[in-house]
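Form 12-C: Joint structure prediction
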Amino acid sequence: MKNAANAMKTKNPAPAPCNIVVAGLGGQGVLTATDIIADVALRAGFDVKKSEIKGMSQRGGSVTCDVRFGAQIHSPMVPAGEADFLLALEPAQLEPNRHLLRPGGVTIDPSVIDADKLPQKKMLNVALLGALSAHLSMAEQEWLDSIGSAFAPKFLEENRQAFLLGRASQNKSVHQR
Amino acid sequence: MHNMDDGNRLLLSGDEAIALAGWHAGVALGTGYPGTPSTEILENFSRLGGRAQWSPNEKVALEVAIGAAFGGALSMAVMKHVGLNVASDPLFTVAYTGVAGALVIVSADDPGMHSSQNEQDNRRYAVAAGVPMLEPSDSQEAYDFMRAAIEISERWKIPVLLRATTRVCHSSTVVRPRAGRDTPKAANFVRDLKGRVMVPGHARPAHRRLRQKLSEMAEWNEDCALNRVVPGGKSLGIIASGISFMHAREAAPEASVLKLGFTHPLPMRKIAAFAAGVGRCVVIEEGDPYLVEAIRAAGIPVSGKPEMYRFGELDVARVRRILRADTSPEAAAPPGKPPQLCDACSYRIVFDALRRHNCIVAGDIGCYTLGVLQPFEAIDSCVCMGASLGVGLGLRHVLPPDQACRVVSVIGDSTFVHSGISGLVEMAYNPPPNGHVVIILDNGTTAMTGHQEHPGTGRNLKHEPTGKVVLEDLARSCGIRRVQVIEPRIGSDAFEHALVEALKSRELAVIIARRPCILIAKELKEYEKRRQCDENEEPCACPV
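Section 2 - Result
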């Protein structure tokens, strides 16, 4: 899956990086979700940078993580107004972080997931990764491989279902502005 | 270490990269005290197979690392920026003595204070103590510069400061490490009285030797590959170090950039030549105006940032503003949800009681500093690790009796072992007229930094059983007669009762509010099982 990076390089010598901000509260899986995005991008051959502030993350405070990938990434932080995607694991974290989005940037939040169909409530972060994945060039299997190595094997099938649930959601509705 | 391996491409945080470099270079001993954003360095070094130890505080950690380096081994002492204040006493003199093996001191600074009480810029320590300093700007450099720091330390027999910041420590970027692991150096003691025993007669020539080394290193730094020029347009030149380099590259892709990696002693001829070759030369640096002051003092015409950018972290947007000298007010960041004490945290009971009895609370550093927030607002001061004891005593000494009798010092278990013990000795030695009350909040872990062990838990960095400092025994041995251990529980007034009685007694009192942190209940059970296997000398099948 080096093709994505190569295609990017041939199209444009210095294309803009893909900028993703993941927002939520401590304990919701913000860091894990961001790790998976970064891992998938790394496997696809991109330059990747991920930045997190986790000092207070276990005490229920708000947490945001930045992940950027492309041919060459400089700053590890997504500049305000330049995020292509804002992934909010907690609906209330959407508005405080909306200023990070570029015009036309995509928001993905729990409202796109039918919570009743989630195999487990705590797999919301994986389902939202599924929704995000529908907008990105990396193959479905790359995501599933990375998710598989991020969690215990016994959750593999349920995580796969959660991921595909999210991935399918984006065919119907894309929250764009 | 994340399982993010694509051939030789690893996605590592700066902390993980420093740990890996230390392991590959054959560092024999890593020491430190937990502190965001440095904590993961020793944890990962241990996971890789390195010998890593939490010390009671950073001063002891550095002293142990110095001993190892005196013995000819490679060692590292790892701490957050304020930890180097605690370790500064040995730092200034080990610069004189030098080392036989190698010693790297890792300082993880926290511009913007994501998890700290100040945003001091520890580059000043390199100048003040006279030690060489390297500043990585991503994880690849964190790896490479750690290796270089060890090599420089070995070559000049001098401790080296590796100064990183939150966005280097806690950002993950691609690393291609060197292949394989060096054979660790054999330790061996060689007597060197004049070199290692800093009595004035030895220290005077040692200081001259240090300055001689620094002047040789400045010369060597002129051609050092740790500094490099990114060629670009000639109208704008940028001089940057650390994470600021990354922001600057993105903010001004058209500019020529002199990227400084070895930032003390500075390569002034290289800087002068770069500045002379560009139209406008701007220094982009986070925190104090360290580089710009030094460069301008050398007579090189460069400009720096407006004072407003001294505060907080830099980012791409702020660097763009600096480059256009924009000093208009910046938009305030939208408020996030603040952290709080966990719902079931036993400290809630303590702060509730302190509030209701209108106590004047000298607080300390840890989770429990969150007691300052609503609904408690039950902490009146927080200065530095261990300060609750001294500050509380000072208040007791001078306040009128009606106020003095309400003063309480509140300190966590790890913080107490770190630097509260000296305060307890002070209390026994200089007791205030109406006594004093110290509350040790003992949750059996260093919770705020991610649940590291400390000498009071009886487990080492790897959570294995080791010697245990029993806090109540320690307090009694200092001569404190009123020592109580209480488990704060919802629905029980035992803690409140003990507090009221202690305040009334006008004696010196220590109340240990002991209940394990609820976030590690599961882990504690596993550690305990392992300890029992250990005691019974049974083969242990417990999960590690």
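Section 3 - Comments
Strands of chain A lie at 18-25, 47-52, 62-70, 83-88, 101-108. Residues 1-13, 173-177 of chain A have pLDDT under 50 and may be disordered.
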